[in-house]
């Protein structure tokens, strides 16, 4: 149960100013079905989080506690680096004619595959509670996708995400360095 809340918070913070949320807002406006788009974006995120949790449950028993902490530190540092990027979506999937269910499902699945949230889920899953980590991350990502879909592209893009990206990036970097230094027993 202790992996549920950190996974939720990490997922929500990273998704608030990340590309999958922006794509969800774009597709919700295009199809005019925000609830359908939000649900399918949530399914895409849940699929990735479940795969990451499965991976964490497989490698977790082979890792020492320090290795698990170091993996979490690396995930946080990579999350900080990801926060420095842009949330602009380069491909709006205009050529995709798969409808209001499959376009967001596949588009968000592909876009979120390289994002920080599955890496956080993997790192938290190695601690022994993979399904709670997957559940927390999935709830966090669905919540953000739901809000993005309801607000739509114009309102979502107008939000001051830059400051949240900077603050969350700094927070991730500090936490990652702290956990990493402790995992390497340098303190």
UniProtKB/TrEMBL annotation:
Claim: Kinase is one of the keywords in the record: no
Protein family per UniProt: Belongs to the GDT1 family.
Entry's Gene Ontology molecular function annotations: metal ion transmembrane transporter activity
Alphabetic keyword roster: Membrane, Transmembrane, Transmembrane helix
Coiled-coil stretches noted in the UniProt entry, renumbered to this chain: none
Residue ranges crossing the lipid bilayer per the database entry: 67-86, 98-119, 131-151, 163-181
Protein's UniProt keywords contain Transmembrane helix: yes
Record's protein name: GDT1 family protein
InterPro entries referenced in this protein's UniProt entry, alphabetically: GDT1-like (IPR001727)
Predominant cellular place of this UniProt entry's protein: membrane
Species lineage: Bacteria, Pseudomonadati, Pseudomonadota, Alphaproteobacteria, Sphingomonadales
Topology term for the membrane: Multi-pass membrane protein
GO CC entries: membrane
Cell location: Membrane
């Amino acid at each position: 149960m202790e992996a549920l809340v950190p996974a939720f918070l990490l997922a929500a913070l990273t998704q608030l100013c990340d590309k999958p949320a922006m794509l969800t807002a774009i597709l919700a406006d295009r199809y005019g079905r925000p609830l359908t788009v939000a649900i399918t974006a949530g399914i895409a995120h849940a699929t990735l989080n479940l795969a990451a949790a499965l991976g964490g449950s497989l490698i977790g028993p082979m890792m020492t506690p320090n290795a698990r902490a170091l993996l979490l530190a690396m995930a946080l540092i990579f999350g900080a680096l990801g926060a420095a990027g842009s949330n602009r979506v380069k491909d709006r999937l205009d050529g995709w004619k798969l409808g209001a269910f499959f376009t967001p499902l596949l588009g968000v699945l592909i876009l979120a595959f390289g994002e920080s949230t599955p890496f956080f889920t993997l790192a938290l899953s190695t601690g022994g509670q993979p399904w709670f980590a997957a559940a927390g991350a999935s709830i966090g990502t669905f919540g953000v996708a739901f809000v993005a879909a309801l607000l739509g592209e114009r309102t979502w893009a107008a939000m001051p995400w830059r400051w949240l990206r900077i603050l969350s990036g700094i927070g991730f970097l500090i936490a990652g360095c702290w956990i990493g230094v402790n995992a390497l027993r340098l303190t």
